Amino acid sequence: MLASVTTFAISGLEPRRVTVEVDIRPGLPAFRVVGLGDAAVREARERVRAALLNSGFEFPMRRITANLAPASLRKIGPGFDLALAVGVLCASGQVPVEALEDQVVFGELGLGGDVRSCNGTLAVAEGARRHGLRRLVLAPPRAREAALVEGLEVAPAESLRDVAAVLGGAPAPPLPPRVDPPEPLAGPDLSDVRGQAAAVLAVEIAAAGAHNILLEGPPGTGKTMLARRVPSILPPLSPAEALEVTRIHSIAGLHRGEALIRERPFRAPHHTISPSGLVGGGAPPAPGEATFAHLGVLFLDELAEFSRSALEALRQPLEDGLVGIVRAQRAIVFPTACMLVAAANPCPCGYGGDSRRCRCTAGELARYRRRLSGPLLDRIDLIVPVEAPTAAELRGPAGTSSAAVRERVLAARERQEHRLGEGGANARMTSRQVRSLARLSDPAQAHLMRHYAAAHLSARGYQRAIRVARTVADLAGRERIEGDDMLTALGFRQVGAGDVVMAA
Questions:
Q1: Mean per-residue pLDDT of the chain
Q2: Which of 147, 153, 156 has its CA nearest to residue 117?
Q3: d(C-alpha 463, C-alpha 171), whole Å
Q4: What is the pLDDT of residues 438-486, one digit of tens each?
């Protein structure tokens, strides 16, 4: 007898429908699973056999063949256990085949027949709704996560016997009670920063337009302190963005809660990370830190200490907001629309420019500077020198709070969304949008052309300077980019930006 069960595989970050076909025929007892499964799928035979017997069901002593279609799609992980077990039950007549219509089952099986949750539940639920399926049967711990997808009935089942009962027509168990997350602790606040007026302004501009920013200065001047306060001034995720971020983190096993992620992600990988760990890769292809920071912040502390290959691999994802990974004739695209916040020392010892403290030789300085290529730096919108605050500033009053800055950032983002659509940000404007939507006054155009003619800007830098100036104007509530807005943007693309900005 033949039975077909619907489940889903995760290909990159997308759910792919999989039909588990189970055929039982007379012959020597055997249980084969075909369909390009990995080791976890092949080992499912033993888990399914033990789970059926320990749950009080009969395991057919006949020839059992299970096919995971489409056969060209690689199946990874233990999430196919439950579909295989249900297929055996239906093909052997222990569960009616008609019960499988419009049903999706997804989960791992324990040897005792208990159903265990798997990563990617939210993606599976989205795939089930997309294909017009009515109900998803899965383990209770992830039921609330699946219920975030509207228009889909979620049936939590603790054991294989519960799954068989639900498929047999019994009412689905209720969703587990909602567990309210604990109140988040107060995070770092910009009011902790003393002095650094130019750097704080640059961070505000970067947050308002989702621009990439590099903080450069000696050790202990507050670069990391500023970077870790960027999330406190970013706007919350929209519902569509929250669903996208939650799906990515669910697939990666980084989301254990029951609600959507509302705060923008902040990822800070160590400088020893590999290129595939930073932008994605491996076999099978898996997302990297740039994807986990999608719609949030990717913080690279000690930027020059990262391997050159890792930083060069980051160039295209920063430009396009996505990265394509090709491995073993598979092409997968991961989103990487993140805001890069980087911090670096001016030289190996950290005290470049201070003749009293810096002991680096000319050769050491040249090697250090070669670690950051020109094409990579050209993709960074704001380069900000960070100097040590004075003694008077350290003793002075607290600076502007994150709440006050966040209000200005939210107002600027609203203007950008009105101009660019939901989720729009100036840093992600296309060249066509820059030409049609970024209105420059005559002084602003003159400043821009003078810098470009003096070879201070590349063609890419020309476009990025306009985007930053557009953000400065949005923060000020101006419809047109004025001369001071352009001077501020141009000042942050060269050394000595602090003086230019303060003059503007």
A1: 91
A2: 156
A3: 60
A4: 999 999 999 999 999 987 889 999 999 999 999 999 999 999 999 999 9
Mean pLDDT value of segment 211-222: 93
Strand segments, DSSP code E, in 148-277 are 153-156, 213-216, 266-267
Q: Which helix (H) or strand (E) holds 162?
A: helix 160-167
Domain with CATH 3.40.50.300 in the chain: 190-503
d(CA 121, CA 152): 13
Q: How confident is the model at residue 31 (pLDDT cuts 50, 70, 90)?
A: very high
In the predicted structure, residue 48 carries a pLDDT above the cut 90: yes
Closest C-alpha among 302, 310, 308, 304 to residue 365: 304
* Longest CA span, the chain: 89
Q: Is 302 left (phi over 0), alpha (psi -120 to 50) or beta?
A: left
Q: What is the CATH number of domain 190-503?
A: 3.40.50.300
- Length reported for the chain: 504
Task: Return residue ranges of the chain for CATH 3.30.230.10.
Answer: 2-167
pLDDT at 498: 36
The dihedral region occupied by 367, where left means phi > 0, alpha psi between -120 and 50, and beta the remainder, is alpha
Contacts of 385 (CB under 8 A, 6+ apart): 198, 216, 217, 495, 496, 497, 498
In this predicted model, what pLDDT tens digit does every residue of 125-151 receive, in sequence order? 999 999 999 999 999 999 999 999 999
In this structure, whether the domain defined by 2-167 belongs to CATH 3.40.50.300 is answered with: no
